[in-house]
Amino acid sequence: MTTDINHILIFKTNIRTDCDKLRIQQILDTIDSIQQWNIDLHDVDRVLRIVSDALTPEQIISVVKCHGFECTELE
Amino acid sequence: MFSNLKWVRTRNADKEQLVKQKAIEMLVEDGFQDFSMNRLAKACGISVATLYIYYKDKDDLIKKIGVTIGKNFFSEMMKDFSPAMPFAEGLKKQWENRSRAALKYPKEAACFEIIRHSAHGDHILKESLKDFKSSMGNFFHNAVSKNELVPVSTEVFWSVAYGPLYTLLRFHSEGKSIGGMPFKFSKKTMEESLRLVIKALTP
Fold it and tell me: Which of B36, B48, B57 sits opposite A74 (nearest CB)?
């Protein structure tokens, strides 16, 4: 299945370690309206990439921040 | 009331091509460890977000670039070649195709080597080499069964059949041979080496 590029949301975060990733995974995996997500731990911006046709960037940011991480949208 | 209105993104083939080109250059110049999506985006004059629209992450980008280069190279190597060719003729075609590709796309060749020796190497070879590998295997077995090639192990065959060619191409890309002598790859040098290789491999 190909992803509609207008449903991709990109954020800069400070999610750094596998342990951090595990913490955020426990939350993101439970949100049904997220079709797919991944974090690039190998790159400086620790980019969180979310595929969702329903959520707004603000909703993602508040979820991530709520769990103690920084998160800003990249446009 | 306009909060749901968003800029509609469209794919831009020129931009995607530029990203590939710049990524290849950066991987060759700075190596694998120093490569970053942030710097790549800057070099391309696009935002980091745009880069992550095209590629899931850094690994995804490197894998895709590796597979693209691999597929291009292997299609270059298969030009006018058939595994059923007589051995000497087929090997000559391989030398011609391989040297042409290496001289025409030096950056891609260097980048492919870097990615091939990284953690992504296996994935890239599996994805891009499938058909090529079986074709080369058939060429080898046909030649042995027609008694046009001495039966040796794959490793011995490869090192004798292609080792000299890749050594000459390396000299060429470095611009010098052993002892720092200036060197340029030529058809004459290639044919001279190939003659010796065929002589060594003929029963």
Answer: B48
Residue-wise pLDDT for B147-171, tens only, equals 999 999 999 999 999 999 999 999 9
End-to-end CA distance of chain B: 82
| C-beta of residue A15 within 8 angstroms of C-beta of residue A39 | yes
Residue tagged 């090997």 (tokens): B91
Which one-letter amino acid corresponds to residue B166? Y
* Phi and psi angles of residue B129, each rounded to the nearest 5 degrees, phi first: -100, -10
Q: Which of left, alpha, beta for A68 (phi over 0: left; psi -120 to 50: alpha)?
A: left
What are the tens digits of pLDDT across the range B165-185?
Answer: 999 999 999 999 988 899 999
A5 touches chain B (CB under 8 A): yes
For residue B5, the chain A residue with the least C-alpha distance is A56
Which chain B residues are closer than 8 Å to A42 by Cβ?
57-59
Neighbours of B70 (CB within 10 A): 21
The answer to whether A12 contacts chain B (CB < 8 Å) is yes
Residue partners of B182: CB distance under 8 A and separation at least 6: B175, B176
